[in-house]
Write a structure and sequence with these properties.
Helix 13 (547-570) runs parallel beside helix 15 (620-645), helix 13 (547-570) packs antiparallel against helix 16 and helix 15 runs antiparallel to helix 16. The protein folds into three domains: 2-38 and 544-742, no CATH class; 52-189 and 519-531, abc type-2 transporter like fold; 243-460, no CATH class. The chain has 748 residues and is mainly α. The chain starts with a helix and ends in a 6-residue tail after the last helix. It is built from 19 helices and six strands. Strands 4-1-5-6 form a four-stranded mixed beta sheet, sandwiched between helices. A two-stranded antiparallel sheet has the order 2-3. It is rod-shaped, with a radius of gyration of 73 Å. Helix content is 79%, strand content 3%.
Length: 748
Amino acid sequence: MKNSLHLYKTDMKNIITNWVAAILIGGLMILPSLYAWMNIEAAWDPYGQTDQIKVGVVNNDTGASVREEDIDVGNELVETLKSNDSMDWQFVDEEGAMDKLEYGDYFAVIVVPEDFSEKLATVISGQPEKAEVEYYVNEKINAIAPKITDKGATVIVEEISSSFISTVNGVIFDMFNQIGIELENSLPDIIKFEDYIYTIEEKLPEIKNTLDETLADAENAEGMIDDANSLIPRVKEATDQGLSTVNETLAFIDEAEGRLDEIAPRVNEDLETIQQAVQDTNEFLESVDLSSQEFPDINQQINSWNDQIDSTITSIESIEEILRQVQDQEPNQDQETADNPDQNGEDNQGAEGNTNEEDNQQNNQEQIEDALNQVTAMKATLQELQEQLNQADEMIAEHNEALEEMMANLKETAQFTNDRLDAFITEYQETIEPRIKEEIQHAKSTLESARNILTEVQDTIPEAQEILNRTAANLTDGEEMLQNVLAEYPYIHSKINELADKIRSVEGETDLEEIIDLLQNDPDAERTFFEEPVMLNQNKLFSIDNYGTGMTPFYTVLAIWVGGLLLISLLATDPHHVETYTGRQIYFGRLFTFITIGFFQTIIVTLGDMYLLGVEIREPIWFILFGLLSSIVFILIVYTLVSVFGDIGKALAIVFLVLQIAGAGGTYPVDLLPEFFQAINPYLPFTYAINLMREAVGGIVWSKVQHDVIVLSAFGLVALIVGALFKARLNKYTHQLMKKSRETGLFH
């Protein structure tokens, strides 16, 4: 180790005392930093300069008319892009734009076709078409520019889509608001409709039963109408017969009335005559003297009385006959009324009217019956008187010894007859004759009413038949309709139940008032919301200021490795006088020199990153320390390769550099790399050195730092062991190879 330190001190002395060497070494210290600084500065903020990228915009849109309103989305897009500074938009015609794109003056061209607005307007038609924007890009100009212009084109499409969606949503939510208001106004009707549906659902079985009963009733009614139609001829016949009977009865009543008018005076005269005769008889009987033997005069008187009694009895029999005819007409009148359905219907309108009529009829019958009894009794009395007169006449003719007793009986009978006649004459004049006339008038009135009613019935028979026929036709139609309804009942029943179940399901899952509240909105606020429904709230963990800062770890680590390559390219790994040092002493002695120069290279590049370029480093001290660790490891690797393997080691160091640039994940995430580079990534020192520098730039996670420091240090330890073990053993072979290569004059 002493000789190694001596060799190191000698190198440092030679650098300091030899100004040429000092200048060269100074250049080697600064040169790697320039590599890092230039790349970092160049990549400082490229995406912040996209406003310098020229993109041609061609608007061929001719506009469209939507519901009598003109729209021109192309012009709206142009106006929007004029205030957009994300790129250098150039508004030109299509021919000029394509020429400049071909010659590289434009990175991309966006063409809005003629039917752009027209296709957007198809959204309100039944067959909407998607509008298209033509995008042309010249990808040979630059690898990154197409990606940037792609983003610009996407921004344009998003801008159009956002504006279109905003407009459409504004209209939609305005309609929703109106629907919500209408729903709120119609809420009572909706609730009432739901209640109707539930009521119908509940009443469906009852409705079914009612329909069945109605159909059965209709079928029965149809049979009844057929029966009624078949009875029409019988009704007409009965009506005709009734009219004939009424007319005959009226004729008979008129005849009876005429006879009454004819015999009434004679009856009164006969009654008065017979009364006078009875009185005369009484007087005669009082004055008669059976001993005087005036029998011929008595016989003559009796015969005269018999004639008068016969005449009176004949008159009384006429009155009796008229009374019996009137009495017989009362039931006939009742029967006529009963046979008349219309009159019967009128009579049935009130129980009180029916009762009064029945009472009147009964009273009339009783009075007629009483009059008949009196007439019959009077007739019997007269017949008895006549019989006794005849007996007296016979006895007088035979000079019967019982004549005296018979005459006494005759006096008694005559006196009784006289009394009965007085009462009968009074009853006849005051009651019987007026009642007979009244009953005749009543019978005539009733029969006239019956005739009028029968005439009306006869007149209404054709109308009734027409009504029955029409009703039968309507019943047939109604029956057919009922059968159709009953045939559709299972379908209606299932649909009503299904509708009710759906209403219950909707009521269980949703609240109509909540839906109304949801529909009622501020259309402008909703439109603004749907212009950007989701806002990206960025929370930067270990935030990086710009792209250059993000690339600083990679370019700094790369510069440190490049610094090592420069050292092995310009500096010798073996001193010129190696006879006094062993191979191991030479390895360690010259290693210290390389590490020292690498130390200054790292200090310069890291301090330059922070203070010259202004890179924002969260942990500047650790940034420098991690850089120094990386430098030591890289120098160990590079120096060992060249010191042990000579020119082959130089080639290996360059190959190692190339692999690490591609596979360490310095520019792109490892996950985006091909499988080969993903496979070698864990075995590359760059991977861990870049991770350490990133931790210092963005913020340290010590568990990761610990892991990366251990793995990175392991690379350096392996290189140190290889150099210590194989330097002396392989040195002779590497010198022979170097000597052989220099014989060509191509290598130094």
